[in-house]
Amino acid sequence: MEIEKFSYDNRIVRNFAIATMIWGIVGMLVGLVIAFQMYIPALNFGIPYISFGRLRPLHTNAVIFAFVGNAMFMGIYYSLQRITKSRMFSDLLSKVHFWGWQSIILCAALTLPLGITTSKEYAELEWPIDILIALVWVVFAINMFGTIVKRREKHMYVAIWFYVATVVTVAVLHIVNSIEIPVTLFKSYSVYAGVQDALVQWWYGHNAVAFFLTTPFLGLMYYYLPKAANRPVYSYKLSIIHFWSLIFIYIWAGPHHLLYTALPDWVQSLGVVFSIMLIAPSWGGMINGLLTLRGAWDKVREDPVLKFMVVAITAYGMATLEGPMLSLKNVNAIAHYTDWIVAHVHVGALGWNGFLTFGILYWLIPRIYRTNLYSKKLANVHFWVGTLGIVFYAIPMYWAGITQSLMWKQFTLEGILQYPNFLETVTTLIPLYAIRSIGGTMYFVGVIIGVYNLYKTAKLGTLEANEPAEAPARETMNLATPGETKHRWLERKPLQFALLATVLVLIGGVIEIIPTFLIKSNVPTISSVKPYTPLELHGRDLYIREGCNNCHSQMIRPFRSETERYGEYSKAGEFVYDHPFLWGSKRTGPDLHRVGNKYPNIWHYLHMQDPSQISPGSIMPSYEWLQKDDLDVSTTEAKINAMRTLGVPYPKGFEKIANDDLMKQSKIITDDLTKNGATVTPEKEIIAMIAYLQRLGIDIKGEAPADMKGAK
Amino acid sequence: MYKQVLEHITGVEIFPIISFIIFFVFFLLMLGWVLTLSKNYIRKMENIPLDEDSNSEKSHNLNAGGLQ
């Protein structure tokens, strides 16, 4: 057989490795800042760009797409070349992928602090960046499939399957969830509204976790763990079952993010059942990983790489057992909207993704630099500081979540809420928030030590940019061998394989999503629910810009503890004009769905100026700039037009007089504020914000919303 | 309220049932496949990542005694 000589591209692996370390530091640093802001709100120094609501999406995006994303690409570009025994399909595409991805991250780092956001979690980036993401992803897909097609190894190792599933599913998720109608270059409205938007968003949000944070990293586990332990995976058969069951089941579980909301009951139940089933493949994968080390546990004691990997896989097992538990309705009723969820995701992010990434880095950097690790001792220090960091992060957050939830639900013997003041349930948690920030700091220190160690390692050696390799030519690989099974036929044909994986993933998506498209015409119309006035619409966009939805929900669940506290529970029909939906997923502050007409205008005015003045001990930051900045009304016409295109019944010609209507309404609010002692003019942003807040949830109470000419 | 929303969609109750049938049929077929895979094939597959085909890996593993 002819032996071909070629080389592996290590430079691209190195570049992604540097990127994951740099963005990891940035993303975690932003996380630390907001962890401190949680109990020292003044830490934004009155600067809008670094207020909690704007930094929180920056933190999640940086960690998910920049840190984990670059780590994923690093791991894939190194392992894919070796398990296919061929160089990446195109060096140019590799470079375009690398720089394209970094420019997306840079755009995110610039736009999110500026308040340019769609508000949909983990999909906050605005439409021009969405298009860029789709293009770069296609480049990555071509590069990957090109490599698989021209491979020299006849068979596709299981890691490749996970990579393929990642590429196709993330593409589908991103495109479906990002369908939006542009208003300006930096503003768009989701084409979906209310219930439908929520379902599409959490179908996306859940599967972003599944196919961005889980499947690619399982692929990496199946390659790097056997490499580091120098022995094959425990059971290859189990890995096949793991793969197909996981991708098939995962896609269904999204609705468990919306339990007890205004989402149809059968969709919720389906989400719960599939979530519980998910335990089986997840634990199959974890067991397969841990048992790979059977008879090699002595190595784990000595080798920091294996230590990191063992904790990562264990964290994966814990998070994937906890996830299904959290999707049980009775558990979810307690955990949802609380810090429990924050603990849950950080076990996944810090443990599974973070530790697997550093395990791989410690293994890979010495190899591509042809040297040994600079300091095993430092790697061990990193391991212990990081592990303790995770513990000190997670435990206070579980504690906080359960404490707060029980306080929310506590009634006195007389049947009234024991803690009617929401703030009381927040101030109790402040010591726990402080411990959490210490845990986060420890983890961060570990990362800095790790990066230093890897930098010194690189300094010790020289990068072998093109690593020579040889393998038999692929002359006969596409011919069937007699007696082969169907699966072997399948895994020789990458395109058929990708197609089957896509179909599987789509079945779940389609069965879930189609009925909700039918729902659109079936949501019971509530005749008193009217479109927002132009001023309220602007206020809503300010609410989105400031990221209020990161701390406040707008979804009252049908529990007595919630209806007592907030008022009537939320109905599907109330959200028909909400493009996008703003239900939120965390209550750091109280729910706002029925806040309309609850307080006088002046209360909101003073509260935005200095929350702790009105509510002593409040951890909400000041939004003083809303009182100083003028509202941009030049976009009113475009906004009304866009909303009408999406089916919001603004009367014909209304866009032309919308600004007159806006001024009229803002004068009324301004007069009221002035009467009560505030010095404010009608063109300030605060007026729009107050108008929006005062409108929330009042339509079904029969309290007439502000008059809007013709829009009836 | 949820039921009211969905009652208007004809035959919606069939959706969850379809989901389950599709999944279990698929799962059984896959299980059938996996159980018929030959030992030789499995051995070959699981060793793919461990094939040391490039120079640096060989020399590295020699230096580091296979573990770093």
Plain-language structure description:
With 712 residues, chain A is mainly α. In chain A, 63% of the residues lie in helices and 3% in strands. In chain A, the strands form two sheets. A two-stranded antiparallel ribbon of chain A has the order 1-4. A two-stranded antiparallel sheet of chain A has the order 2-3. In chain A, a hairpin with a 2-residue loop joins strand 2 and strand 3. Chain A is globular and about 90 Å long. In chain A, 55% of the residues are buried. Chain B is elongated and about 55 Å long. By secondary structure, chain B is mostly helical. The model of chain B is unreliable at 1-7 and 61-68 (pLDDT under 50). Chain B has helices at 2-7, 14-36, 39-46, 55-64. The longest helix of chain B has 23 residues, at 14-36. Chains A and B meet through helix 2, helix 6, helix 7, helix 8 and helix 13 of A and helix 1, helix 2, helix 3 and helix 4 of B.
Topology:
The complex is a heterodimer of chains A (712) and B (68).
Chain A: E1 3-9, H1 11-37, H2 52-84, H3 91-111, H4 127-149, H5 158-177, E2 180-184, E3 187-190, H6 194-229, H7 236-250, H8 265-277, H9 279-291, H10 297-302, H11 304-326, H12 329-335, H13 339-368, H14 376-409, H15 422-427, H16 430-460, E4 466-472, H17 486-492, H18 494-519, H19 534-545, H20 560-566, H21 601-609, H22 611-614, H23 625-628, H24 636-645, H25 654-675, H26 685-695
Antiparallel strand pairs in A: 1-4, 2-3
Helix pairs in contact in A: 1-2, 1-3, 1-16, 2-3, 2-6, 2-13, 3-4, 4-5, 5-6, 5-7, 5-18, 6-11, 6-13, 6-18, 7-9, 7-18, 9-11, 11-13, 11-14, 13-14, 13-16, 14-16, 19-26, 21-26, 24-25, 25-26
Chain B: H1 2-7, H2 14-36, H3 39-46, H4 55-64
How would you sum up this structure in a few lines?
The complex is a heterodimer of chains A (712) and B (68). Chain A has helices spanning 11-37, 52-84, 91-111, 127-149, 158-177, 194-229, 236-250, 265-277, 279-291, 297-302, 304-326, 329-335, 339-368, 376-409, 422-427, 430-460, 486-492, 494-519, 534-545, 560-566, 601-609, 611-614, 625-628, 636-645, 654-675, 685-695; strands spanning 3-9, 180-184, 187-190, 466-472.
